[in-house]
């Protein structure tokens, strides 16, 4: 009877009848005779139904109760499932640290990780990346690809795409390119959301390599696929990258229109980190058009968002603020910001951002009359940029 009720609730939920699924498990949950393991499964099913119905408080209460019931049952698989569900809620609530804590427990409960462990590690990689723990996130994605069976092509493709995105923000362009190629080879079934993400990452890679026409073409495809998939966060990410292409082309009208759309949509979606990235891009657009006050306001918002975190977003904001200070004639403040950004990017091994830091510092040193220092910074930037692009050179 218990299994039948749970199967019926699951079928209703898959069919889109969240209210029916919730009702189907109510009788089971009202009974004192249901085993703790069955209660945990029922609570997770009801939590999924509550989530579909938009009741986040009830969703969280059911997931917390499911964790407790699974612990009472002493069922490691049920505990791992409940903890993973709670970790997803933590991510939704913008609390990646709590998500990592739950996922650490979930992974430790699995005697044989397999595909289930791979799925948990993939989510933990997302949470670690949001905490600026890029090394930990990359280690998790490496482990995912080790755990997945070669026959699990779709899951492997998703892991390669995730690692490509992480490698891009780490400045490992060659590694990102290899992962994107692997993801494309593994995707056998068309899926607009996955294709949109892959085109977007390809567009970002081409942008970093200076192939602006190729980047723009990829981003057109990415936007279309994101629309087809109803992926609004994906559409916002594409808009931000399209704004960056506009910046590189000195097309300020397109850049401002696209980045304003990205900020507005990400604010609406409650994606604080995504909105911070878009505001940093908007600060760059405002800087280019001479709106120093507007650029400073956007950067203040970003730095407020990342207060207390000495991570990648803070370093990126400091880098752009250094440019604002240079334009405003505040050379001491510019020097402090660019040195802080450069120190972070060097420690993180992010050579793409290090090149930008060096070019900003070269400009600053030239203004201050240090021509030898400026020339050395330009030489280092040129050398690093050539090394980054060498793997993609023809022949």
Task: Explain what the structure shows.
This protein is an all-alpha fold and 395 residues long. Among the domains are: 247-302, no CATH class; 318-395. It has helices at residues 2-14, 18-30, 36-52, 56-73, 76-92, 96-109, 114-130, 134-147, 153-169, 173-186, 192-208, 212-229, 232-248, 252-269, 272-288, 292-305, 312-328, 331-348, 351-367, 371-389. Helix 11 runs parallel beside helix 13 (232-248), helix 13 (232-248) packs parallel to helix 15 (272-288) and helix 16 packs antiparallel against helix 17 (312-328). The radius of gyration is 24 Å and the shape is elongated. The model has no long low-confidence stretch (mean pLDDT 89).
Using brief descriptors, characterize the structure shown.
395 residues, mainly alpha, 83% helix, elongated
How is this fold's topology laid out?
Layout: H1 2-14, H2 18-30, H3 36-52, H4 56-73, H5 76-92, H6 96-109, H7 114-130, H8 134-147, H9 153-169, H10 173-186, H11 192-208, H12 212-229, H13 232-248, H14 252-269, H15 272-288, H16 292-305, H17 312-328, H18 331-348, H19 351-367, H20 371-389
What fraction, in percent, of the residue positions are helical?
over 70%
As a percent range, the share of strand residues is under 5%
Number of strand segments: 0
Radius of gyration: 24 Å
Low-confidence stretches are: none
